[in-house]
User: What shape does this take?
Amino acid sequence: MVSNVSTNTFAPSLWKRYQRRLAPPLFVAPALIMFGIFVIWPVLESLWLSLHDWDGIGENRFVGLDNYVELFRDDPVFWTALKNNIYWLVAFLFAPAFGLALALFLNQAGLAMRFVKSLYFMPFVISQVVVGLMFGWFFNAEFGLLNHILTALDLPKIALLEDERFSTFAIIAAGLWPQVAYCMILYLTGLTAINPELIEAARMEGVKGWKLLWHIVLPQLLPATSIAVIVSVVGALRSFDLVSVMTGGGPYDSSTVLAYYMYEQTFGALRIGYGAAIATCLFLLMDVCVVIYLLRSLPSNKR
Amino acid sequence: MFPAPITNASAKARAGYHIAVWIGLIIWILPIIAVALTSIRSVQDLNAGNYWGWPTETMFVENYRKVFTSSPMLRFLLNSTVITLVSVCGAIALATMAGFALSKYRFPGSTALLALFITGNFVPFQMLMIPVRDLSIHVIPVYDTIWALILFHIAFQTGFCTLFMRNFIAELPDELIEAARVEGVGEFKIFWHVIVPLVRPAMAALFVLVFTFVWNDFFWSLVLVQSDSARPVTAGLQALRETWTTTWHLVSAGSLLAAMPPVIVFFLMQRQFIAGLTFGATKG
Amino acid sequence: MKLSHSLACLLLGTSALAASSAFAGTVVLNASVASAPDRDAVNGAVASFEKANPDIKVEVNFYDEESNKTAIRNWLTTSPPDIIKWYAGNKMAQFVKPGLLADVSDIWTPQVKAEFGPGMVDSISVDGKQYGMPTSYSTWAIYYRKDVFAAAGVAPFKTFDDLVASCKVFRAKGITPVALGSKAPWPLAGWFDYIDLRQNGYAFHMDLMNGKVSWTDDKVKTVFADWKKMVDANCFAENHTNLAWREGLAMMNQGQAAMMLMGNYLIDSLTPESEPVTEAMSFPTIDPTVPRAEDAPIETYHIPAKAKNIPDAKKFLAYLGQADVQMQMTQAYHILPANPKAKPPENRLLQESASLASGAQSYAQFIDRDTADAVSTIAMTGFQEFLVHPDRLGRILQNIDRAAKRAYPN
Assistant: This one.
C-alpha cells in the first residue's frame, strides 16, 4: 500500500479510492458465478425444457403445456408418486417428535453419555445408499431379520417391499432412522442451550414433569423445532437414494416418488421434457417450504 | 437441566437408566451391527443360511481384502476422497468471501443475493439434473470425470455455506474492521488477516458438514459419471451390487468401507459438526 | 541462404513426419463388458488386430452395460469414440434415423453377407444399407433341473398346456415351478415375448413392437389369457417383485425351483452342484401352425458418424466380423458368436441352447430392443403388475397403448 503511494503520487489509484465499494461485488462474484451457472441457470433451463418434447438426440419439439396436461390427466404413476410424497411428508413431520423424545431420554451428563450420544447419531452420517442396503436386508421376505424375529415369535412372515400396499412405508421407515437421529441432535443441543435458571425457578414453584416440558422447555426449544421441521420437510421430498436402492420404485411403480419418477422418465423412458415437467412439479411443492422459511428468516436478517 | 439430572436419583435408578440407554443403543444401531457382522462372515455361513447368527468363523482380513482385489473399490474410495476434499475446500473458500461481503457491507442487491442463495438451497436436485448434465457435456466438457462432480458440488454447497458464513461473520464486531480501515488496511487484507482467522471455527464446522453431504452423495454420481475411473464410492457400491448379488459378505464389507470416512471425520470433529448443524440454522 | 536451407529442412522434416503419422492411425474403442472374461476377450481381439495391422493402434475404454446405455447417447451427439458397442434392431435404428451412425455397407461384401446369412444382415440394416457388425448373440430357453423334473415325474414340455399342468404337480411336491426375480422387470418380458411369438407369430409381434397394432388388440389379450393360466396355476415364485434375477435363480440352484426362462448368460451363474443337472428346452408350442420364432438378442459394434478415424475403424469392424476372431472372442465369455461359420464355445449347455434356437424361422431382439424405450419401460412394469393383479389387465394395456401411440404417432 505504502509503496503504491510513493510511486504514484499525483493520483491515488482507482482501486484505493473505491475499494470499499468495489470489494463487495468482487468477494461475492466467484460464489455467485458458480451458483448462477450450476443452480440458477439450470432451474430456468429445466422450466424451459418442460415445455418441450425431446429424447435427447432427436428434434427438440415445443409442445407448450402438453407435458403437464399429460401428467395430471393421463398419468396414474404421477398421482401415485405425489401421494407417496405426501406420505413421506406426513411421516417425516413425526421425526422431530421422535427426535425430541430421544433427546430427552439421552440428555444426561457423563463421559459415557457423550460417546453414546455420538453413536445414536451415526445413522445420519452414513450414506443413504448404505442405509437402503441395510434396511433392504432387514425387510427381506425370505431371510430378513424382521421375518426371522416374526418366525421366532411364531408369527407369519411378511413381505413388505414386495407388496404394493406396504413398500412405500417400509422405505419411509428406513428414511426415518437417519432423520430422527438428526432431530435428536438438534434437540440435544437446544436442550443444553436452555437457560438453567428458568428451569430452576420453575422447579422451585413446584412445576415438574409434563407441565415443565410443555410450558417452559418446549417454548425455549422453538428454534430447534423450526429447524427440525424444515429439514424434515426437505428431507422427505428429496428421498431419491432410498427409493432407488431399495425398490427402484417398485413393485410396479407403487413406491415411486416424484424425485425418482423424474429420473426414470429421463434416463429410462428417454422423455427429457416430460421428466423436466415432473421436476418442476416437485420444485413447486418445495416452493411452499421456501416461502415459509423466507418469511421466517428474512425479517430477523435485516439488520 | 431438563429432565432432572440422573445423578440426583437413587443408585438403582441410575443403573436402570444406563442399562436402558445401552439396550436402546444396541437396538438403534442394530442394522449397522448386522452389516458389520455380515462383512466378516464366511461364504459357507451364507450358503448355509446363517445370515443373522454369530459367524462360525471370522474372515475379516479375507473378506475385506477380497473387496479390494475383486473390484475397483480402491479407485472409488480415492475418487470420493479427491472429489470431497476439493469440493469442500472450494465451497468454503467461495462462501467465506461471499458471506463476508453479504454481512459486513451494505450494497444494492445484497438482500436479494442472500435470498437467492437461500432459495437455491431448497431446489430439488431433479430440477437441475438435465441442464447440469448437458452443461458438463457440451459447455464445460467435464462429463464422466471427477471434475464434473467437483464443480457441481462447489457450486451447490456454496449456497448453504454462504448463508452459514454470513450469519457467523455478522456476529463479529464491526469495530475490528473499522479499526483496520482507519489504519489504512485494504479490504482484501482485512478479509485475509482479520476475518479469516476469526471464522476458523465456522470453517471447521462447515468442513465436517459439507464433507458428509458430498461424500454421501449418490444422485449426482449417477448422473454425471459413467466410468469406473471417475466413480465415487456411493455409485460404485451400487454398481457392484449387480456383480455381487449373492455375495453379501462383500457387499457388507464394501458398504462399511464406503460409510467409514464421514463417520471417522464425525468422531474426530464432533463438536464442530454439531455446532455446524445447529448454529447456522438456529440463527436463521 | 542459410535461412532458406534450414527452412527447406524444416519443411522436409515436417512433411516426413506428417506422412508417417498418416500411416499411424488410432482407433478409440468404447467397449461395454459384463465380466472379466468378456474384458479379456476384447483385449485379445485388439491385440491380434494390432499385430495384423501394425500401423493402427487401438485404445480401449471399458464400461459396464448400464453405464454404456446411458453414456452412448452423449458420446454420439458430442465427440464420440471410433467404435461403440450396441445392439441390433430398433436400438440401432433409433440412432440411424438421426444420422448418428456411419454407413458401413462397403465392408459388407457379398461374401461377408453370404457368410452371415440374411437374418444377421437384416438385423444391422436399415433401408438396404448396413450400419454395424454383429459379433455375438444370446438365445433364450427354459432351463430346468432334470433331477427335480424326474423326482416329480414331469417330462420336458411339448405344449404350453404341459407347462401349465406341471405347475400343479410341482406345487404338490412343495417345489416352486418357475424361478423368477423381477425387481428389474425384464425377465418377465421374456415370458411375454415367447407367449406372443408362439401364439400370434413373429409378424404380429413385430407389428406390435413397431406400433402398427394396438396393445389393446384382442390378439394381445389372448397372450395375457395364456399367461393368466400360469398365474392361476401358481407357477411363479412368490415375492419375485423384489428379487434380482440371480437371486431368483438361487432357488433353482438350490433345487427348490424347477425351471427358469432366461437367456444363456444364466449358465455363468449356475453353481458347480447345479450345472450338471441343468438342461435346456425350447419354449413349448401353443399354436402348432405358427412358424417358430425365437428371442435372440444380437450384440453389435458400430462406427459413430462423427468418429475421427472412420477408415481405420472400418478395418477394425471388418476384422471383428471374421469367424476366427469371433470364435476367439466368445470362447471364455460363454456367449454365441454371430458369424455362423464360427464354432460356439465348448460348453454343453451353451451348445444345447444354441442348437435349440437354430432353425427358427425368425429372430426377435427382445422387447426392450424391439420397441421404443418409452413403451418398453411401461410395458415391463405392466407385466409385473399383471402377474400380481391379473384383474388390472384392462388398465395396464391402456397405459401401454397410450405410450405406444405417443411413440409411434402414425
In short: Chain B touches chain C through 13 residues (CB under 8 Å). Chain B has 15 helices and no strands. The radius of gyration of chain B is 24 Å.
